Amino acid sequence: MDDRIREHARTLVEWSARIEAGDDVVLAVDEGAHDLAVAVAEQLGERGANLLSTYQSDELTRAYLDSHDGEFEESPAYELALYERADSVLFLKGSRNTAETADVDGDTRRAYSTARQAIREARLDTDWVSTQHPTRAMAQQAGMAYADYRDFVYDATLRDWEALAEEQARLKEILDDGDKVHLVTDGTDLTLFIGDRIAVNSAASVAYDSHNLPSGEVFTAPYDTAGVVTFDVPMTIQGRRVKNVELTFKDGVVVDWSAEQGESVITEVIETDGGSRQLGELGIGMNRGVDRITDNILFDEKMGGTVHLALGRAYDACLPEGQSGTDSAVHEDLITTMGDGSRLEVDGEVVQRDGVFRWEDGFEA
Amino acid sequence: MDDRIREHARTLVEWSARIEAGDDVVLAVDEGAHDLAVAVAEQLGERGANLLSTYQSDELTRAYLDSHDGEFEESPAYELALYERADSVLFLKGSRNTAETADVDGDTRRAYSTARQAIREARLDTDWVSTQHPTRAMAQQAGMAYADYRDFVYDATLRDWEALAEEQARLKEILDDGDKVHLVTDGTDLTLFIGDRIAVNSAASVAYDSHNLPSGEVFTAPYDTAGVVTFDVPMTIQGRRVKNVELTFKDGVVVDWSAEQGESVITEVIETDGGSRQLGELGIGMNRGVDRITDNILFDEKMGGTVHLALGRAYDACLPEGQSGTDSAVHEDLITTMGDGSRLEVDGEVVQRDGVFRWEDGFEA
Lengths: 365, 365
Hints:
- 2 copies of one chain form a homodimer.
- Chain A is α+β, with helices and mostly antiparallel strands.
- Helix content of chain A is 31%, strand content 30%.
- Chain A folds into 2 domains: 3-157, 3-Layer(aba) Sandwich (Thermophilic metalloprotease-like), CATH 3.40.1830; 161-357, no CATH class.
- Chain A contains 11 helices and 19 strands.
- In chain A, helix 1 (3-16) packs across helix 2.
């Protein structure tokens, strides 16, 4: 076994999920994540945690959904009982074919998802963590050789998370104290307000309200957005390619939009409901181990020197008690590169210039 | 997909497990049983049953057990809650390496098994069915080419179960009405009593109290066994080869034993407890699709023209209300071939001679 798989498992169990003796752990194993699952099982045994593994297979899901009449039972009691009693759910992502469910009927997919809402919520109520085992299919999606992709995944995942958490704490403090954010890039001049909102120091650990490994971002819930933003990072949204999306905001709402590619998807997203016309998240990528875009949101949005904004639902963790943020059925992240000439300002002070934070080497004041 | 996989899945879901709309089904997927799992998911969707898949991996189990200190929690509540609410558990066997857990410490294995007794019982309380997807590892264990092994598995599994159930009903009637069984083979002259005991028509369906696919046997719970029996079918018991076991019974109890190979395993089994010195099962194989021994008890004991006897625990289904049969921590099947010169008699009447039942072509009265 690649030593990095074992290290990945240790990081997941120890740093991210904070597993302790007697914890009831569900290991949700994707088709291609077997090797990581073995390494995680070893870690769980070592800690005296309990282990139940589920099999997450897109091929099974497709076969089940394609043959089902679409009248799904609401969150079946046996599955709900499992997750309601679980302490942690560890999602080991590892697709063998990212297009496997491409032909599943959209209505069926939505009906299935809607019927399972209580199960999903029960899972989110646990100390859940989602992580990625490198598979050939993911390498292909990234346009990379498998060996290179493995290097990429482990460079992004096996970080000094404690050090990054400390660095991110600086940015969290600035955002928590700040009111007005000004974002400037080639094609972007955007103003957002974050007063009273709480920034999350997303350091790849449930101890930091962070449920992704890798993580490495600080995010908050903006409001009253105004101006123009261009997202130059290409993405796949609902199986369709999206490129150079431009959004224009007025009084916190999208009033105009276009895209060089995939504009129809963007239109669908924006027109979902009231909340999908507003931003739910302003996220600032701080993971310098993510050094390229690989068409996988788990990595892309964490990339150091990028900023992402999400249309739709805000995270509760960003909202003070009693305050409500953007509510929507969607949460769609879009990413922009903070390249040469870019600026991120909070209350008039430059926090990042040309993609370099003011506490980093090479920052030009 | 091999059409036979789809047919296997249909047989499992329809004939064996009798799955209906709304049933809460746990699909327990072995590492090598993915293809069958996809076909079963299709069948479950078609019937509107609910589906949760667990991942049964010997590699995970080994990693977990090897790193655990051996102090296991008794049947963790989250897993117990799942099985207590499930209607059916479908075990899709499909090992990728039958020796995977060979080096796991015996004490750890037993402690794990003991701690999980309530979970095991909850599973046995469902309409559970265990079946076998053909893998290369199982072909290897059988000493067969993979293509031949697949043919073997499907010949044994894709039977006309309704017809076999009818044929088996004849034997069940004979055994239910009978009192004294006399078994004669080369090396065997054994008398067993079955008065008051209930024979199970094991026709690969929960509707017949049968939880194996394939099945194809009629079994009951004998007592007061006397005489000698030789088991000429080689087996693997607890990872060790066993060959030509000879047992001598007096007043229902083993008084002498030997084996050409693996005698120490047989000794361990017999000396487990009081019940392990007695027989818990007399089973008569009636599946003519099983045409050879493949070192897999799921198939071997069902082979038409064989009889098996189990040391240890009797099945409740064979005991009239209020009567108790052999009780033991073990249930170890041993098999003898009903070859030329063999006889199976019930109350002095020959039911099978030279391996041919009296209702079959070629029977010599």
